Amino acid sequence: MDSILVTGNGPLNGQIPIAGAKNACLTLMPATLLSEEPLTLTNAPRLSDIKTMTALLQSLGAEVSSLQDGQVLAMSSHDLTSHTADYEIVRKMRASNLVLGPLLARFGEAVVSLPGGCAIGARPMDLHVEGLEALGAEIELEDGYLHAKVPGGLKGAVHEMRFASVGATENIVMAATLAKGTTVLKNAAREPEIVDLVECLRKMGAQISGEGTSTIEIQGVDRLHGATHQVVTDRIELGTYMLAPAICGGEVELLGGRMSLVSSFAEKLDAAGVSVTETDKGLKVARKNGRVRSVDVVTEPFPGFPTDLQAQMMALMCTAEGTSVLEERIFENRFMHAPELVRMGANIEVHGGTATVTGVDQLKGAPVMATDLRASVSLILAGLAAEGETTVSRVYHLDRGYEHVVRKLEGVGAKIERIKGQ
Ligand code: UD1
Fold first, then answer.
1. 95 lines ligand 1 (CB under 6 A)
2. Rounded CA gap, 24 and 149, in Å?
3. Distance between CA atoms of 78 and 124, rounded to whole angstroms?
4. pLDDT at position 116
5. CATH number of the domain that 343 lies in?
6. Do both 294 and 369 map to the same domain?
7. Is the CB of 121 under 6 A from ligand 1?
8. Would strands 72-76 and 109-113 be described as parallel, antiparallel, or unpaired?
9. Which pLDDT band, with edges at 50, 70 and 90, does 117 fall under?
10. 217 and 243 assigned to the same domain
11. Which domain holds residue 57?
């Protein structure tokens, strides 16, 4: 297994291009199942999760071609041959569950294994099931698979989710595009990836309004047609690289970044003493004067502070002046990076969903282990700021969500290399 060797070597300066959003792409790809006509995505990120979704769609009979070095995905679901999402693929990635709504809408039937994904909590699918049942689906759990069918076809309904789940919102919205009548989804998630999905579905002929608010209204149509859509910028990759100059010092421009994607995160950086400004090409982040100040963080659904940036923010707080409290409210088991950061000299105490971090003058390099996708990059950030060498093992987690991480960080002056087969 590969590992990444990072050597702390001071401030970072330059530009980092930000890719298309993994989480948007993973919901846009299953949207191809809704139409017999081709769907083409541009600005796709080059990630192993995208390959997993490609394999899943192909196992259903869809054609997926990766063009222009993986940045364009040309898909066609003209001749689907299966409505079963097999455990062997689904277990690799929770987002596989996003084929459930589209398959049900297209075939009136779907069999989808309960997912795996990052080991950051229980992550059930009850909210997906409740929403699809409200549209008339009958769903049972057998042998680890959800068996869903809707004999008379999906029918629009008013449904309020108990929690604004991102994935459940996406599944319900996709299913409702082909339902008979109008669906009103209340307490819907408001994440930019959902707005991106709706914009794509609209290009395919769907009638949807209210995306980006907590009430989404969908008027079902008989069929959807083909479209071409550009994947929105990855706000989590953006936020992650915004932390690179914050933790190391220097000034880095994040190409393609937009403040509206990361406003609550940028506010925290500002409070910590890191400046974030908009430029013609993206966002510029600079830390010039000494250590950052500690700030408290509570993770919340969008537009609150994203759970997917909590681990990276913790790395920054390990080096801040003072004590900060990070409260994780989305996933119950998302502090697995804390003991690894402690190996690097950090001072962190975890009690339930709260981590108290007291900044230290200097982190020290150490061998550490990536435990999930965002944890892995938080250890790289910590390594960039540490004295000496840090080796991060199990980087397959990183490959799920960050393309060309070594090249991007080297480009701003970091000392980082990938070591094969360790
Ligand atoms: C998506 C993102 C993930 C991000 C998360 C929260 C993708 C591919 N992944 O995951 O990176 O961390 O949003 O911003 O877009 N829950 C239930 N029942 C359900 C569904 C969810 O209890 O049926 C719970 C989960 O266990 C979790 C919380 O709701 O505690 C949030 O989950 P959800 O918003 O659904 O996240 P995902 O769509 O899985």
1. yes
2. 26
3. 31
4. 57
5. 3.65.10.10
6. yes
7. yes
8. unpaired
9. very low
10. no
11. 22-230
Q: 307 CB less than 6 Å from ligand 1?
A: yes
Q: Are 70 and 100 in contact (CB under 8 A)?
A: no
Query: Quick one: tokens of 246?
Result: 């914050």
* 157/278 same-domain check: no
Number of structural domains found in the chain: 2
**Atom in ligand 1 nearest the alpha carbon of residue 191:** 14
Judge if 69 and 95 occupy the same domain: yes
Question: Relative to the CA of 332, which ligand 1 atom is closest?
Answer: 30
Beta bridge partners of 111: 84, 147
Reduced DSSP (H G I as helix, E B as strand, rest coil) percent helix, strand, coil of the chain, to 5: 35, 30, 35
CA distance 287 to 246: 6
Verify that 333 and 398 share a domain, yes or no.
yes
pLDDT tier for residue 121 given thresholds of 50, 70 and 90: low
> Which of these three, 198, 230, 262, is where a domain ends?
230
pLDDT, the chain, mean: 95
pLDDT tens across 180-230, in order? 999 999 999 999 999 999 999 999 999 999 999 999 999 999 999 999 999
What residues are labeled active site? 118
Is the distance from the beta carbon of residue 128 to the nearest atom of ligand 1 less than 6 Å? yes
Q: Which two tokens stand for residue 130?
A: 């409740």
Mean pLDDT in residue range 33-54: 97
Provide CB contacts within 8 A for 290, sequence distance 6+.
273
123 lines ligand 1 (CB under 6 A): yes
Given 230, 259, 279, the domain boundary residue is 230
Clarify whether residues 204 and 270 are in a common domain.
no
**Ligand 1 atom with minimal separation from the 236 CA:** 11
Q: Are residues 30 and 172 in the same domain?
A: yes
Mutate to test the pocket of ligand 1, among 118, 171, 330 (most ligand atoms within 8 A of CB): 330
Nearest CA to ligand 1 atom 17: 124
- Cβ(30) – ligand 1 distance below 6 Å: no
* C-alpha span between 167 and 191 (Å, rounded): 10
What is the token pair recorded at 79? 């001749």
Ligand 1 atom closest to the CA of 193, numbered from 1: 15
Which residue's CA is the closest to the ligand 1 atom numbered 15? 23
Q: How far is CA 228 from the centre of its chain?
A: 22
- Give the integer Cα–Cα distance in Å for 147 and 169: 19
Same domain flag for 62 and 208: yes
Pair of tokens at residue 160: 């309020």
